[in-house]
Amino acid sequence: MPDPRSSPVQPTLDDLGTPLSDVTFVVVDLETTGGSPSAAAITEVGAVKVRGGQVLGEFQTLVNPGGPVPAQITALTGISTAMVATAPGIGSVLPAFLEFARGAVLVAHNARFDVGFLKAAARDLGHPWPGFAVLDTVALARRAVTRDEVPNHKLGTLAAFFHATVTPDHRALSDARATVDVLHALLGRLGPLGVTHLEDLATATDPVPAARRRKRHLADGLPDGPGVYQFVDARGEVLYVGTATSIRRRVRSYFTAAEHRRRMTEMVGLAERVVPVVCGTVLEARVRELRLIAEHAPRYNRRSRFPERMPWVRLTAEPFPRLSVVREVRADGDRVEAHVGPFAGRAAAQRAVEALQATFDLRRCTTRLPRIPAAAASACALAGMGRCAAPCVGGVDAAGYGELVDRVRAAMVSDPGPVVAHHAERIAALAGQERFEEAAAVRDRLDAFLRGAARAQRATRAAQQAQLLAARPHDGGWELVVVRHGRLAATATSPRGVHPRAVLDTLVATAEHVAPPRAPATAAHPEETELVLSWLEEPGVRLVEVDDGWECPVRGAEAFREPGAVAAAVHHGPSVPVAGRDRPANRGTPALRDARDAAPQCALAAPGTA
């Protein structure tokens, strides 16, 4: 395997936003005794330094290769052994060239060859390679000049095509001068395609449609920081909303070969401007993205557009309750019955219903039943199969049915163990009969219920918090967050050397007022609440202030959120330690365990004392 330090692969150009007219290029050409750095040596170095179309300086010298120059090389270049016998060696030439080229972008025609020899010489001499940005005019020419215009992309061919002032003749300085003219001509061609800045050169050779590349100007002037960006068309319609740690860099990627999604190409074609929203923290950016998507429902966003379409599974409030799929959390008087969810779609919600119905003999009919069965009432087929308690015909009285409902409510709200146990037994039986597809369907049904129950339990905990304050170390300071009823009410960062308490007090005073929701629904988009909760569980996050109720059920469904937990429970039963850990499967995340053991008011240290 070749030494990676000697690999002549073009390095990445930094996203500096520098106009090409302000960039210093050093166009270099070498003459050598052969084609491989491992078996040949440099005989001549020629370079031209240019900026803004003006020549700033030139560098040219013969180099003693330390051996004879092959006859065929002499015939090609005119450089003989006698000519280089008294020339300086590469040990003297290389440091001088590197000083000449310092801070510039190296340009060469077939840069792999020239830069490869220079890097190999630096390695052999033990000289550190500065890590120049490198531009290859061959690659640029393949992008800007078609084969209908030129038969090939050799330097001589391109120099003649662009009427270069110097004709290349296989001497280093002449070839470098010719390459300068070719470079300027290529940049002139690429300019109308949006290649106008230094960072554009990194993707100038990508196979990007011209129409999309011309839209690169939409990224000009965008901030280089975290936030949200919105692609907007000529009518003002928001086409797409995204988030990034660097808005400018992310938007620029839509005009390169890195973006190959067909719908994004279509979206960029319609876009006329990009509206940035700078955010103080990455969490704020992600939350704002969700809110903007929910507000505008952009046609090119595929997720989070319609939070009102995320259904819940509800235990109805009537004499003989049943399970129902509903669009929102409903209250019955002052009471909110048990809910699980929300779910991504109705199909997932229905699977959760089936999981509960398979475990408990709840009625499945949708008619509202009276407390006293009607004389003409008749039982359904499920009752005959023993899969329904049949309160419609007096199969169970209100008190007995109430005990059944209490068990269902407990499974939904606090302990899914009976549902897991029933499905584990059923899956084992089906697998033993090699009915694997049916077993997979039962598994998916259980998984849907556990996901919905866990989400509801997490949401309930967040919804009950009128105000939660949290902090995380950030660049020597603190990232501060105010959460109210599961909604991000405010966030900011305190800089290094500033005590965060004063910043946090100001943040609390200016935070958004949030009205209490109906738990388990929170005051935010379900995905926003999940984003906030996930952030609170990240390493290093400290709960500064938290109300009572910041806890999870001991045997709750959240235990099954860990990877492999459902499979382990199905295999061993819900009471066995999950994922091989020697602990109950219900202690919750480290942040939750710490919060249960801590006082409601937690200490927030000054910067540097954490």
From TrEMBL:
UniProt KW keywords: Exonuclease, Hydrolase, Nuclease
The GIY-YIG domain, residue ranges: 224-302
SUPFAM superfamilies per the UniProt record, alphabetical: GIY-YIG endonuclease (SSF82771), Ribonuclease H-like (SSF53098)
Keyword Hydrolase: yes
Entry superkingdom: Bacteria
GO molecular function annotation: exonuclease activity
Annotated SMART domains: EXOIII, GIYc
Ranges for region Disordered: 574-610
The protein's name: DEDD exonuclease domain-containing protein
Species of origin: Actinotalea lenta
